[in-house]
Amino acid sequence: QVQLQESGPGLVKPSQTLSLTCTVSGVSITSNYYYWSWIRQSPGKGLEWMGAIAFSGSTSYSPSLKTRTSISRDTPKNQFTLQLSSVTPEDTAVYYCARGFDFNYWGQGTQVTVSS
Fold this sequence. Notes:
Elements: E1 3-7, E2 11-12, E3 18-25, E4 35-41, E5 47-54, E6 59-61, E7 69-74, E8 79-84, E9 93-99, E10 105-106, E11 110-114
Parallel strand pairs: 2-11
Antiparallel strand pairs: 1-3, 3-8, 4-5, 4-9, 5-6, 7-8, 9-10, 9-11
């Protein structure tokens, strides 16, 4: 059974870097042809795909967030990590990790608030 779990601080100050980790169980993140995404939903807005890391380790990012986003992985721990730099209150959202680009498996989400 594939499970994903997000973890990280719930409060980040403006201009700092938001860092979240997704721990995956039930499948290796290096298994062929799987991609692993980060998605967020801000208050009153729809889902926004932020970026993904492939089974190979290659990454892809949303053009609107590319300059501030970095996704990496820790294969021994079967985790992948999101870093979003220079955050503002507009980055306040529920952040999710998911498998693939069709998001067939999701974590439960974690609320991140950007506030001083």
